[in-house]
Amino acid sequence: MIEVSIFQIYVVFIIILYIIRRPRIGKDEPPLVPYTIPILGHTFNYIFNTKKFIKECKEQYGECFSIYVFGHTMTILSRSSLTDVFRNPDDFDLTSATNEILPLHQLLIYNGGTCRESVKFHAKTTREQVSGKLDTNIGVVQKYLLKGMEKWIGDCNEPKIVYSAWNMVNGIIALPIANIFVGEEAASHEDLVKSLENLAFDLGPLFMIPPILSFIHQKLHEFVITLPMKFGWNPVSRHRETVMNRVRPVIETRLKEKNMLGENYKPYNDLLEYYMNQPDFDYTKPKNLPYHVDNLFVMTFVSVNTTSRAAADALYDLAGRPELLNELYEEALTIDRECNGSLTVADVKKMVKLDSFVKESLRHNDNILNLVHYMISKSFTFSNGFTIPGGRKIILYTDDMLKSKEYFGVDAEEFEPFRFLNKTSPATKVDRSYIVFGGGRHACPGRFFAIYETKMFLHKLILKYKVSTKSGKIEDKLLIGPFSLPSQSGIVFENRN
Fold first, then answer.
1. Which of 49, 100, 441, 458 has a CA 20 to 30 Å removed from the CA of 349?
2. How many angstroms separate the Cα of 379 from the Cα of each of 82, 171, 370, 396, 442?
3. Does 115 appear as a known binding residue?
4. Residue pair 492/470 in contact by the 8 Å Cβ criterion
5. How confident is the model at residue 1 (pLDDT cuts 50, 70, 90)?
6. Where are the alpha helices (DSSP H) in 277-364?
7. Per residue in 50-61, pLDDT tens?
8. What is d(CA 128, CA 121) in angstroms, rounded to the nearest whole number?
9. What is the mean pLDDT of the segment spanning 395-409?
10. What is the tens place of the pLDDT at every residue in 406-427?
């Protein structure tokens, strides 16, 4: 009798949940794709059959449609409706939607993580201090890329096989960034570099937790994954402590130099110096240094991880195409002889074949959907006539735009490494169709540095090594729902000479 009662309660609960969570679509909204499984809706296909499912939905319902996943309605945008988001950034909130998946605002407790004001500050910092100082920083990048390659790859007289090469590339890419961010003295400590290198990877598991509890309430997933943080657990804490311990003596030394030299003090060319020059900087106050270190972590999270991801994808794309490697080697050798091994920004710009290859690799990043936002205003009407209500979650069908035959030709699905050669279309250029770095006035300001570092990494690697996949094939990326990760297959390194 008790078992029957529990079963009945369960059935009533499911029915109530279904009634409460059943999507309601207004007459002017994008069409809701029909589904047959109550409550779950399209969740299964969204996770396990994303590419085919979203493509079929678009073919049947047009460029703008809604699906029901994890207990809420989400609108998928492509083509013209997608670009409407970039043209009207004040109507859409990327920060809140991102924090719901990866709660940086709970992890970076001293600066609020990625609140809107914080995002503006980081964008300005990136634009002025990172991408804006390519001429100054290029020597540092070159020096520490070579050191990183020596450490992580080394001598390959005998063929060396590296699996999960993203970890290796992440370590190589992190080394120059650490030196640009905190200066060579602080970055000489391996534990500091390791913290900046591993920060994003340590937070990655939080990003991968599926929001199952969102079936009950949209905010419940965020509440549960951040609950341990309310009791003191924070994967950022040990990295923060390491970095503070290493930069504090550097700050003290620089302040002494300032007092002694006065106007003759020569500022250091790194991000730490920039933070020290902020009006609110006072490392002696209890929360001040942690605040600026958390600022540094935001910059680290969006620079090391994304640049190493692009470089790792490009490395796999290169390793699977031996004929391409030979052609890029000829270009690299010519430029290396002209600059005598010491690259300038002008030399990196000459790498036109490599630039086209990197851009094509980025175009084939294979993320099916990306850049989730919330609708901020009461409603928004797209240029195609559809209207979505305030509070609606939207996500961009980026793969559809990046593989569009309208913009990239009949072979848009194919990987053509020199597709952009002689087209005045560098990898850093953002336009209507090439949305790897977003679009509009909020396009990624760090893309210039990311592309230059990626090209320099590949340039030095091509000069030094022959690379190939262990399988001898072009390796596919790993797909986790609508998102992709670099392959974990083996790459073979051999000394070129």
1. 441
2. 16, 45, 22, 18, 21
3. no
4. yes
5. very low
6. 288-319, 322-339, 345-349, 352-363
7. 999 999 999 999
8. 11
9. 96
10. 999 999 999 999 999 999 899 9
